[in-house]
Design a protein that fits this description.
about 170 residues; mainly alpha; about 80% helix; about 0% strand; elongated
């Protein structure tokens, strides 16, 4: 492992700004900008430490949800959206030879998220004719559950970096 880590470097930068630069800053605007920089540095450090696992977990959940959506669509006779889901799953498959950087994992997660969004739009268009179908209600509930969990996971990268740390711009 390379020492210090990227997160440690960022924390050192933040500490230097607080200990050395902040006492010399005189204007409210400059103090506000410095506080914002501190928030963003903490956010980046959290992302370095946690984003990879969050994305890996998200991709697993998205793949399972998309498989369930595809199964529902196939059962309901909706081939086109199901084919689009299968294409997205194939495109987002992890290659064996390359380490998945955060950029690669983020792109995979975005591709799968787009497939979920497209499926949701299709399912929303089917609301009236299918609203009494328990399978339809179940797949819509699964999508809502996923979306709520995604917001919660993203919050773990935001809340600790910004909350109770002073003013933000």
């Amino acid at each position: 492992m390379i020492h210090p880590s990227a997160a440690q470097i960022i924390r050192t930068i933040e500490a230097t700004l607080v200990d050395v630069v902040e006492p010399a800053v005189q204007t409210t605007t400059a103090r506000s900008a410095l506080a914002t920089i501190g928030h963003l540095l903490r956010h980046v450090a959290l992302r370095i430490e946690q984003e990879g696992q969050i994305l890996a977990d998200d991709i697993l959940v998205q793949r399972a949800l998309l498989a369930d959506i595809a199964t529902y669509l196939a059962t309901a006779g909706d081939a086109d959206p199901g084919d689009a889901i299968q294409a997205a799953l194939a495109q987002a498959a992890a290659p064996d030879a390359r380490y998945p950087s955060l950029s690669i994992m983020g792109a995979r997660a975005s591709l799968l998220r787009q497939a979920i969004q497209d499926a949701l739009i299709f399912l929303q268009d089917q609301r009236d004719p299918r609203k009494a179908d328990p399978a339809y209600q179940a797949i819509r509930a699964a999508i809502r559950t996923y979306l709520a969990a995604e917001v919660q996971a993203e919050g773990t990268l935001i809340h600790p970096a910004f909350e109770d740390k002073g003013p933000r711009r």
